[in-house]
C-alpha cells in the first residue's frame, strides 16, 4: 500500500460522499492525509483529488459496516458525521479502516487514538443534544411553536424524534442558526429544510405574559442562601443563555 | 384573560415550594399520544438551572401555602404570619400546559400545605391532577407529594395520576419529629410510604397480568431529609437512607441542607449558613450506596459518625483500606475497580471493555476518562506504578483533598510510593485531625 502523506481528498460534504472516500481509498490503495469538505478553502499548491459521490459505492461501504464490523460501528460513524469535530472526516475514515481490519473488536479499542477521539466527539454531540431537549425555548405564534438554537454540533436529527413525539398534535419549527437548517413538524410529519435567515413577527400579549411568568418563576425558585453561579454555568454554559427565555432582558423582544 | 393574581400566586407558591430539593423527572419512559401533549424520558431532562445551581425540571409549586400544621422548620407553618393563597385547578392546569408547550418544563411538581385536613388536601390535589390529565390530556411528568396522615384510598387515587410520589421524612428521628414537627409522627410518614411501596409492587404484578392496568407511580417514590436542623449524625442519616432503599424500595432519597427560615430556640440560629459541604458528602455517599456497591457501615460507624468535610467518602474509604491497593487495572474485578478513587461507573465499564482488546497502560487510562490525579496512587498498569510517581506522604493526601482545602505547606519529605506503605491509617487520621 502506498502511504504517501500528501494525498488530499475533496468531497461534496455529504455522508455518502465520505463513504465514497473510503471506497476509493481501498480501490486505489492510498490513505489521504486530508479529507476536505467544500466548506473548507483550498490552500495554494493544493492538488486535491475530487471524489465523486456515487450512491452505489456509498451503499456498498455503508452496508458492509454491520456485516464486517457491527451495527454499533455503523451508528457511531453516522453520529460522528453530525459532530463538530474539525477532523470528523478523517476520524470516521480511519475508524472504518480500523474496523474493516479488526472487525467488531474495534469497538473495544477504547485506548486507540482514533476510536477514543471519535467516541469523544460523539459524546459531545449526544450530550449537547440531550441538553437541548431541555434548553430549547418555544414561542407561540398563533398556532405555531417556534424555537431558535445555536448548537455546536448538528443536533437537529437527534432532537427531531423527541420533540415530534412530545408535541404530537402541535405544529412547530426549530431553527438551527449555526447550520442554517430547520426542522418543521406539521400534520404528524417532520421535515429538515435549509433556512438561510429567519425573521419572526412580534409576539402577542399572551406570549409576553407567559414569558414574564416564567422569568418570575425562574427567579423565585433559587434559594438565596445557596447562590452558586459557578455550579450553574457548569451545567448550563453561557453560550446557551442567548436563546433562553429566562435570560431575555427585553420583555417583548422578538429579535434573535 | 389574565388574572393579575396569577403572577403573585405563582411567586408566593413557588417561593414556598423551593425548599423541596427534588426536581428530577426521571424514572419513566412514556411515548406521546395523538390528541394529547407530552411524553416522559427515562433519564429525566433538566430544562434550566437556577442561580443556586439546582436543576429546574418541573414547575414546582404548592397548591396552597395555607397549612394547619406547625412544623418549626417550615415557612408555611400555621404560626408564621404570611399571605396565604391557592391555585384553582384551572389556573394550575393552564399554567402547566402553557409552560410545557414552550418547553420551559418537563412537567409538574405539586405539593401543598395542609388545608383543613390531610384528606381534604389530598382530594383537592386529586381534583387538580384529574383536570390536568383528563381535561387537558397532559402526558408529561407529574411528581406529587403525598400528605402525611391521608387515607390509603386517597393516596392510591393520587398515585394513579402521578409518575412519582414522595413523602418527606424531613427529620431523621422520632425525637426530632416530636420536637420540631408536632403534627407529624414517624408512623404517619412511614405508613403511606409502605402503602405506596406495596401498591407499586402489586401494580407490577397487575401489569404482567393485564396489559392495560393503570400505572401506579411508575417512576417510584422518593423522600427528603433535612440536614443540619437537628443534631442527627451523618451515620444516622445514611443508615436510614440505606434502610429506605432496601425496605421501601425508594428510587431516591434527597438531602436538603437546612436553610434557616425561622427564629426558634429549638433550631439553628438565623445566621447559620446551610451546611452545603455536608449535604454534598451525603449525596456522594448516597451515590456510593446506589451505584458503587458500598454499604453504609463501610463508610461510617459509631466511632466516626460524620463525614470528613475535606475528603470525599470514597477517597476516605480507600485511605482507610490501603491494604487493598494498589490494584492491577488489567486484572481487577469490576466491583473493585469501582472502589478506586478517580474511577467512576462509566470508566470502570470502559476499562472492562478496553481490556478485551489488549492490556491498558496509564495513557490508555487517561483516554478512557479515569481521573489519574486521584487514581494514580491506587493502581498499577501491567504491574507498574505510574512513571515519575513520587510522593511525600503529606503531598499525597493534600492532592487527594484538593477539592476542598489546601493545608499549609511544610518541609517536603521524599518517599518512593510502594517501597513501604506510604500513608498509614494513623497518618491519615493525624492529617485529618490537623495534627500533621
Counting DSSP H or I runs of 4 or more residues, the number of helices of chain A is 8
Total tally of structural domains of chain A: 2
Structural class of chain A: alpha/beta
Largest sheet of chain B, in brief, is: 6 strands, parallel
- The string of secondary-structure elements of chain A, in order, is EHEEHHHHEEHEEEHH
User: What proportion strand of chain A?
Assistant: 5-15%
Sequence of strands across the biggest β-sheet of chain B: 3-4-5-6-7-8
* Overall SS class of chain B: alpha/beta
Tell me the overall shape of chain B: globular
Give the tally of structural domains of chain B.
Answer: 2
Backbone CA Rg of chain B = 25 Å
Beta-strand content estimate of chain B: 5-15%
What global shape of chain A is seen?
Answer: elongated
CATH homologous superfamily descriptor of the largest domain in chain B: Aldolase class I
What does the average pLDDT of chain B come to? 86
Q: CATH architecture of the largest domain in chain B, please?
A: Alpha-Beta Barrel
Count all strands of chain A and give the number: 8
- Average pLDDT of chain A: 92
The major beta sheet of chain A can be summarized as: 5 strands, mixed
CATH level-3 fold name of the largest domain in chain B: TIM Barrel
Please explain how this structure is put together.
The complex is a heterodimer of chains A (256) and B (436). Chain A is α/β, with parallel strands linked by helices. Helix content of chain A is 43%, strand content 14%. Chain A has two domains: 8-126, no CATH class; 136-247, no CATH class. A five-stranded mixed beta sheet of chain A has the order 4-5-6-7-8, covered by helices on one side. In chain A, strand 6 (171-176) and strand 7 form a beta hairpin. The longest helix of chain A has 23 residues, at 113-135. Chain B folds into two domains: 5-299, Alpha-Beta Barrel (TIM Barrel), CATH 3.20.20; 313-432, no CATH class. Helices cover 38% and strands 10% of the residues of chain B. Chain B has a six-stranded parallel beta sheet with strand order 3-4-5-6-7-8. A two-stranded antiparallel sheet of chain B has the order 1-2. A two-stranded parallel sheet of chain B has the order 9-10. In chain B, helix 2 crosses helix 3. Chain B is globular, with a radius of gyration of 25 Å. At the A-B interface, helix 5, helix 6, helix 7 and helix 8 of A face helix 1, strand 1, strand 2, helix 2 and helix 12 of B.
Amino acid at each position: 500500500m502506498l502511504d504517501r502523506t500528501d494525498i488530499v481528498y475533496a468531497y461534496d460534504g455529504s455522508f455518502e460522499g465520505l463513504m465514497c472516500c473510503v471506497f476509493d481509498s481501498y480501490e486505489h490503495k492510498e490513505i489521504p492525509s486530508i479529507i476536505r469538505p467544500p466548506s473548507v478553502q483550498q490552500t495554494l499548491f493544493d492538488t486535491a483529488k475530487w471524489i465523486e459521490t456515487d450512491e452505489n459505492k456509498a451503499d456498498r461501504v455503508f452496508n458492509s459496516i454491520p456485516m464486517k464490523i457491527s451495527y454499533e460501528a455503523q451508528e457511531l460513524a453516522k453520529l460522528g458525521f453530525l459532530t463538530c469535530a474539525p477532523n470528523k472526516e478523517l476520524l470516521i475514515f480511519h475508524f472504518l479502516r480500523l474496523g474493516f481490519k479488526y472487525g467488531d473488536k474495534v469497538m473495544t479499542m477504547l485506548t486507540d487514538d482514533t476510536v477514543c477521539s471519535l467516541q469523544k466527539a460523539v459524546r459531545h454531540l449526544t450530550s449537547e443534544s440531550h441538553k437541548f431537549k431541555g434548553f430549547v425555548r418555544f414561542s407561540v405564534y398563533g398556532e405555531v411553536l417556534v424555537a431558535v438554537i445555536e448548537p455546536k454540533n448538528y443536533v437537529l436529527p437527534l432532537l427531531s424524534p423527541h420533540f415530534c413525539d412530545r408535541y404530537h398534535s402541535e405544529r412547530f419549527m426549530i431553527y438551527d442558526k449555526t447550520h442554517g437548517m430547520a426542522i418543521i413538524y406539521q400534520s404528524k410529519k417532520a421535515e429538515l429544510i435549509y433556512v438561510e435567515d429567519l425573521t419572526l413577527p412580534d409576539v402577542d400579549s399572551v406570549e409576553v405574559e407567559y414569558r414574564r411568568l416564567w422569568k418570575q418563576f425562574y427567579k423565585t425558585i433559587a434559594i438565596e442562601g445557596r447562590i452558586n453561579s459557578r455550579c450553574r454555568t457548569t451545567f448550563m454554559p453561557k453560550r446557551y443563555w442567548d436563546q433562553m427565555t429566562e435570560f431575555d432582558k427585553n420583555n417583548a423582544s422578538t429579535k434573535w | 384573560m389574565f388574572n393579575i393574581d396569577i403572577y403573585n400566586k405563582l411567586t408566593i407558591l413557588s417561593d414556598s415550594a423551593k425548599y423541596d430539593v427534588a426536581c428530577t423527572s426521571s424514572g419513566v419512559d412514556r411515548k406521546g399520544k395523538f390528541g394529547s401533549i407530552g411524553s416522559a424520558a427515562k433519564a429525566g431532562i433538566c430544562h434550566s438551572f437556577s442561580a443556586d445551581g439546582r436543576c429546574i425540571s418541573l414547575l414546582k409549586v404548592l397548591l396552597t401555602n395555607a397549612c394547619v400544621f406547625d412544623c418549626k422548620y417550615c415557612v408555611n407553618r400555621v404560626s408564621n404570619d404570611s399571605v396565604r393563597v391557592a391555585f384553582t385547578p384551572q389556573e394550575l392546569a393552564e399554567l402547566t400546559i402553557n409552560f410545557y408547550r414552550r418547553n420551559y418544563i418537563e412537567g409538574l411538581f405539586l405539593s401543598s400545605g395542609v388545608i383543613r385536613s390531610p384528606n381534604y388536601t389530598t382530594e383537592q390535589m386529586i381534583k387538580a391532577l384529574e383536570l390536568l390529565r383528563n381535561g387537558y390530556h397532559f402526558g408529561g411528568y407529574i411528581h406529587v407529594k403525598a400528605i402525611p396522615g391521608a387515607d390509603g384510598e386517597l393516596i392510591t387515587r393520587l398515585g394513579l395520576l402521578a409518575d412519582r410520589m414522595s413523602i418527606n421524612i424531613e427529620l431523621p428521628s422520632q425525637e426530632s419529629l416530636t420536637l420540631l414537627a408536632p403534627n407529624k409522627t414517624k408512623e404517619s410518614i412511614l405508613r403511606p410510604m409502605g402503602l405506596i411501596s406495596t401498591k407499586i409492587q402489586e401494580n407490577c404484578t397487575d401489569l404482567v397480568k393485564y396489559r392495560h392496568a393503570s400505572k401506579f407511580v411508575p417512576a417510584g417514590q422518593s423522600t427528603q431529609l433535612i440536614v443540619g436542623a437537628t443534631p442527627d449524625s451523618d451515620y444516622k442519616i445514611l443508615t436510614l437512607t440505606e434502610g429506605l432503599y432496601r425496605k421501601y424500595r425508594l428510587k431516591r432519597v434527597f438531602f436538603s441542607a437546612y436553610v434557616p427560615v425561622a427564629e426558634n430556640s429549638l433550631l439553628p440560629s438565623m445566621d447559620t449558613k446551610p451546611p452545603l459541604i455536608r449535604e454534598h458528602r451525603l449525596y456522594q455517599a448516597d451515590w456510593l450506596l446506589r451505584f458503587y456497591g458500598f454499604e453504609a457501615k463501610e463508610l461510617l460507624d459509631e466511632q466516626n459518625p460524620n463525614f470528613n468535610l475535606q475528603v470525599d467518602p470514597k477517597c476516605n474509604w480507600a485511605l482507610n483500606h490501603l491494604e487493598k491497593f494498589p490494584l492491577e487495572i488489567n486484572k481487577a474485578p469490576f466491583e473493585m475497580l469501582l472502589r478506586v478513587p478517580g474511577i467512576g461507573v462509566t470508566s470502570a465499564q470502559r476499562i472492562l471493555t478496553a481490556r478485551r482488546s489488549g492490556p491498558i497502560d496509564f495513557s490508555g487510562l487517561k483516554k478512557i476518562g479515569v481521573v489519574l490525579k486521584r487514581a494514580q496512587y491506587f493502581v498499577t498498569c501491567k504491574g507498574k506504578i505510574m512513571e515519575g510517581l513520587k510522593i511525600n506522604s503529606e503531598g499525597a493526601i493534600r492532592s487527594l483533598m484538593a477539592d476542598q482545602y489546601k493545608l499549609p505547606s511544610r518541609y517536603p519529605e521524599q518517599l518512593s510510593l510502594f517501597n513501604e506503605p506510604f500513608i498509614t491509617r494513623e497518618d491519615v487520621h493525624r492529617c485529618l485531625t490537623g495534627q500533621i
